[in-house]
Amino acid sequence: MTAPTPPRLRFAPSPTGYLHVGGARTALFNWLLARKTGGTFLLRIEDTDKARSTDDSTRAIFEGLTWLGLDWDEEVVFQGANLERHRADAARMLASGAVYRCFCTSEELTKRREEAEARKEAFKYDRRCDLLPPAEVQRRVSAGEPHVLRFRVPAGETAWDDLVHGVITFPNKDIEDFVILRSDATPIYNHAVVSDDIAMGVTLVMRGDDHISNTPKQILLYQALGATLPRFGHLPMIHGTDGKKLSKRHGATAVGDYQHLGILPQAMVNFLALLGWSPGGDFDEVMSLEQLIEAFSTDGLLRKASVFDPKKLEWMNGQHLSRLPLEALEPRVTPLLIAAGLATADDLAARRDWYFTLLDLLRVRSRLVDDIVRQAGPYFRDTIEYDADAVAKQWKEPAVVRPLLAATRETLAALPDWAPATMEEALRALAEAQGVGGGKIFQPLRVALTGLGVSPGIFDVMVALGRARTLQRIADAEALLGTMG
Questions:
Q1: Can you tell me the mean pLDDT for 31-52?
Q2: CATH 3.40.50.620: does it fit domain 82-235?
Q3: Do 20 and 210 meet the contact criterion of CB atoms below 8 Å apart?
Q4: Judging by DSSP bridges, how do beta strands 306-307 and 238-239 pair with one another?
């Protein structure tokens, strides 16, 4: 049996804004399928809207895809460069009779639309220009009268077997004769897309289901041009946690924004892949790019809308953060530590082993790279700020806490070696001698050392701080408690 021909898929964004998460998800699914099947992933920039297309938006698309690791296999196609082919394809359909010239002005169409609304009827172009005698059409063309080209929709219905939704059928009577070429001879979206997809040899069009209404028109254009139909698949929309279509009101929707918020690209890819797709069965949600490629199948595409939950994304990021090799994590954190004034590059290089141990310690409780930086302050600064809530909770009885901290400091100062096991044994013995639970020692100590109510394991914290800084922090806390009455 002959093996199926690997598909040719494309991602075709318009450079009229940033690369949003919905577009990135569409690109990812196309890319995963191409990589899984040995197919080809193509990138086309649909820049025919010259008024709204910008170089900055194009650059943002390239940067977003590159950040996500979604590489394309052939040279980027710019739709605006294909104008002559768009016109030639339109001319072919005009010659075959699939298309006709329409001389109706926008003012005339607006008036008829308003009249239809007044009658409480849906407006549909009445084909009056299709009824013009050929000689009249030629006279108007020769006179230079502006006109558009309209596609003559045939009777019957248009159907396709959608990769996601199954068979979808549109009665052609519900599709008006649509314009394919404007009066300035520039193409309308549906025509340009079909012309380009044919030229690029696209065999599977996978995109958002907001394009479903475009598909019957595009199928009719394929048929009129005598081209082989691609397979179509329409992905469900992405909603916010309120169930409404994802938009700026839900927070960041640009891929580039998440890059700057401390999200790892592999976490973003993992999160996006599970919006509208499931590998099936009992699976680990945290997957590498290689695992996603291996697991991806169109059988797992879901019909229902998916929910973009920022908290789930942050959780996913934390999972990837904890699995990232320290050698890969370090260059992401170091510039931020330097920018925060916590350390210099030379200082970090000189204490590389200690620095890597600290990174490994801090990432356990971090969901974002920025969380690591926020936790890092106590390990670099000589003095710390105390969190008001932590102080109120753990130091609410200064007269009780201060002597316990003093005893803790004296116990730690007397230790023969600075190791977690030795510290724990000594401090638990102290708690027993003082007649208190271990928490009465450890929690106030945590605030004294970090200024925070939550931190990595207290003994790991002390190892990272070192003996001298640990003892000084406790002494500073004792002094502060002495002023609190």
A1: 94
A2: yes
A3: no
A4: parallel
Residue 351: C-alpha distances to residues 251, 328, 356, 380, 419 (Å)? 39, 17, 9, 12, 19
- Give the count of beta carbons closer than 10 Å to the beta carbon of residue 315: 15
Are 400 and 457 in contact by the 8 Å Cβ rule? The answer is: no
Is residue 282 pLDDT above 90, yes or no?
Answer: no
The pair of three-digit structure tokens given for residue 44, joined into one six-digit string: 């086309």
Q: Position 248: which residue type?
A: K
Looking at domain 388-482, does it have CATH number 1.10.10.10?
no
Instruction: Specify whether the CB–CB gap between 150 and 99 falls below 8 A.
Output: yes
Which residues are CB-contacts of 385 (< 8 A; sequence separation ≥ 6)?
Answer: 377, 451
Catalytic residue list: 248
CB 46 within 8 A of CB 79: yes
Burial of 308 (0-12, 13-18, 19+ CB in 10 A): buried
Q: How many residues are listed for the chain in this entry?
A: 485
Question: What is the average pLDDT value for the chain, to the nearest integer?
Answer: 94
What is the DSSP-derived secondary structure letter of residue 382? S
Positive or negative, the CA dihedral 243, 244, 247, 248 is: negative
Is the sign of the CA dihedral 168, 172, 175, 177 positive or negative?
positive
Task: Kindly state the tokens that stand for 484.
Answer: 């609190």
Q: Tell me the pLDDT band of 261, cut-offs 50, 70 and 90.
A: confident
**Distance from the Cα of residue 14 to its chain's centroid:** 17
Sign of CA dihedral 380, 384, 388, 394: positive
For residue 318, how far is the Cα from the chain centroid?
A: 16
How confident is the model over 355-403, as pLDDT tens digits?
999 999 999 999 999 999 999 999 999 899 999 999 999 999 999 999 9
What Rg value do the Cα atoms of the chain yield, rounded?
Answer: 32
Cα separation values, 474 from 384, 392, 445, 459, Å: 12, 17, 7, 14
pLDDT in the model for residue 254: 84
Whether 45 contacts 58, CB under 8 Å: yes
Instruction: Kindly provide the residue ranges of all beta strands, DSSP E only, lying in 148-291, ordered along the sequence.
Output: 148-151, 157-162, 166-171, 179-181, 204-208, 231-235, 238-239
A 10 A CB-CB count for 33 gives 23
Q: How sure is the predictor about 242, in pLDDT bands with cuts at 50, 70 and 90?
A: confident
Percent of the chain beyond pLDDT 70? 98
Place of tokens 């701080």: 465
Owner of token pair 């030379």: 346
Number of neighbours of residue 451 by Cβ within 10 angstroms: 20
Instruction: Report which DSSP code applies to 92.
Output: H
